[in-house]
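Ticket #4471: structure output looks truncated?

Reporter: J.K.
Steps to reproduce: submitted the chain below (984 residues) through the standard prediction queue, then opened the result file.
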Amino acid sequence: MPFLDPEPDALRPTGKPDRTPSADRVADDRAGGAPERLRRDLERLLGTEKVLWKVSDLVKYASDASPYRFVPLVVVLAEDAEDVAAVLAYARGNGRNVVFRAAGTSLNGQAQGEDILVDVRRHWAGVEVLDADGHRARIGPGTTVVRTNAALARYGRLIGPDPASAIACTVGGVVANNASGMTAGTTRNSYRTVASLTAVLASGTVVDTGAPDAEERLAAAEPELCERLLELKAEIEADEELVSRIRAKYTLKNTNGYRLDAFLDADTPAQILRGLMVGSQGTLGFLSDLVFDTLPLHRRTTAGLLFFPSLQAAASAVPHFNEAGALAVEVMDGNTLRASVSVAGVPRDWAELPRETAALLVEFRAPDEAEQERQEQEARRVAEGLDLVAPVPSVTNEFTRDSAAISGYWKARKAFVTAVGGSRPSGTTLITEDFAVPPARLAEACEALLGLQEEHGFDAAVAGHAAHGNLHFLLAFDAAEPADVARYAAFMDDFCRLTVERFDGSLKAEHATGRNIAPFLEMEWGQKATGLMWRIKEAFDPEGVLAPRVLLDRDPRAHLRGLKSIPQVEAVADPCIECGFCEPTCPSGDLTTTPRQRIVLRREMMRQAPHSPVGDELLDSYGYDAVDTCAGDSTCKLACPVGIDTGAMMKEFRHARHSPREERTAARTAKSFGAVERSARLAVAAADRVRDRLGDRLLTSVTGAARKAVRPDLMPEWLTELPGAAAKRLPATDRSQASAVYYPACVNRIFADPPSDSQEPTLPQAMVLVSARAGRPVWIPEDVNGTCCATIWHSKGYREGNEVMANRIVESAWQWTDGGELPLVVDASSCTLGIAEEVVPYLTPANRKLHERLTVVDSLVWAAEELLPRLEVVRRAGSAVVHPTCSMEHLGDADQLTRLAESVAEEVVVPLDAGCCGFAGDRGMLHWELTASATAKEAAEVRSRDFDAHLSANRMCEIGMSQATGGRGYRSVVLELERATRPG
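Returned output as attached by the reporter:
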């Protein structure tokens, strides 16, 4: 399907006359995708569904969170260890190499390859708690840290590593890089907390280091490897100077090179292997299974954001907070603090902070009230002896338990990447680096780094994990400009010498070696230790199959190879730093593309010359892969550190492919929506009668034929769980005593609510009944028919229709509410979001002023805050599962859904994999495969047991979830609230 229909040139790159085409663009001879023989070989070996070969597939895997870009020849979606072993065997036999990629959040190119790239995220998720108390857990390598900790939270446990990318990074990647984060330090990281692991070696041997007979099986399968590991152990232990050096290096956070202390901490080959695999960055084998010793989850948190007159003063305070038991001590310099004001929620007056100012974010976590009080006393005692300043009104220098305030502190800390990365000049690549120095020399290292950045012309800023002497900094430069690359290279040379020669520090504290530091490995470790690392690699991977040049590289300029240019794209997406934080939230991530990949593909289009074969191929694929299968839910914006709304970009692309005639037709539909609404209700009623007589097969066949004749993105398909038509008339209500205006969304005026039993009230009836029962009656205006929240037009990119309906609903709401005197209660969360926020850009100036006076309230909030406290629950369901919608996440109402469910059910379950269902209004009827993919994990969890009630608060999402779960009837929580409080 062509991307742009009927205007195929609207989004083609036009080229820039002032710049030559980028040297890193995909060459035209790659337009056909993977080499034919390689593709066919792997398809015969694994099956066609596991091999991605189109040029668009290759491009979207070419970029990650690092400053590098390498286009693989083919991508394999491995499902199990047997698939991995088969790919490795093929690579060994054909002189090829393999790189593993999970979340793609690694910052130094560890997950990028130029030959066979193996995706180990999609099929590798899962958490199995091994002990009744949760003290051990088996975790699939494709499971995100956030998802892992959500499963463990039920047991009051968590894993030790806590990287800032926890929302997106996978546990396999965390262990492979020995990533740590704010609190892990050197004692809670993967090296210290992974009890055992299963690895697929380059030879194809699968090693479970936790098996009772692990040593015997490894010795039988890999006798030469075992022998060489024991030889290396003996050689290291015989060298007292080397032993001392190794021990000293790991008193700091250090992820540069292989964990040489594995030879000192373990006595047997399998246990040495376990230690070496942690932090090996995919160069020694694939981690297919991980067993963690979990840690207590202390839920009581106290934190303070303290301001100091200088970095030296802040650094001097760090040891005192460490001694007081702080779990996290984070430092921010003045430049970071001032830059962070560009992030929503950070106080504006921080822009006035003196340049010399520094801050510490100090956090304590306690298991109980007594310990929390003790910690707070210690914290305040330390603070009283410090030289604190309050140069602007928003600075309080106080410790608090308030979760909102603490969240704000961390938002300010994490604004380091957001502020610098999002505001970097267009076209520049962002590099995030980290290093560690002895904590006592923290201030000195900060000052030296800031000076070095200024010397080389980079924006100077520093932040980091002060408790562990671990500092972070960002560099932005134009990889397409040789002079800028040379400036970056000169900086790296000076930075590495500074860290090693002046501070004897770690060049990589927690981000792992990667391509950026591989050339400097010997500078830090010396010739002898680096030589041992080369011998480790040769012992595990004698044929060099795994991740060449990722950790070991003898080319002193290897870090300058493969640097990616950042072509300018649409303004909404241009700030993207390709970090991948958006990907776990995306409904289409396992079906077609993620938000990051949509932007990566768009950037590759801009690298291409107009009408190049590669550009044409990308454009042809983009229509379905990126635009059509985007749910437009914009949850990517919530996860993105720089606030990019890729959904909005896809809606603009939908608009771009509309002809003027289509736009006019959409506008006419909006103007005559009353007739459209009546026709839709009649059509649903007619279809329901056909279904009663002939079943779903005929309707499925008819709509299927129509989709082929028209276009799948315009003609919906019939779904078995589609409900019947709603009642023709809404409940009669009285305006005179109303506490609110009730707006039944058009979808609830078209589709009936399950169950269809006439004895049960419809959603509008239930809302009227339960509101009156609580003494907060609502009024339904007589002229609601023919109005809409405008989301229908907004999601499809019909600008003119959107403008018509957006202005109509605001004008109507203004009249209904007497100029905003009464709140407007909306019974579908997506419509609440639409009226409250999404209509605003399309309003006339006059109507924007009217909109400012409106109070738009979601039915969840109305029920939880206005009705529930005034009602008596007389019956409760035994169990309920809830589906929080993406609109609830945007509105901040998801907790209200759970609160209401807990009031009407004895047990309430929020699925661990709950997320956007991808139904997105009618998109689930246009592309059911999107909802099927988006809901797969959540639906499996729901189907795993029986529930008495399935609750949400958005009609189309309820239809989608009912379909996905095989007929589990999802319905509004308001219906259940009415039933639970019904007298008698």
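Triage note (M.O.): checked the attachment and the full token line is present. The longest strand covers residues 285-293.
Status: closed, working as intended.
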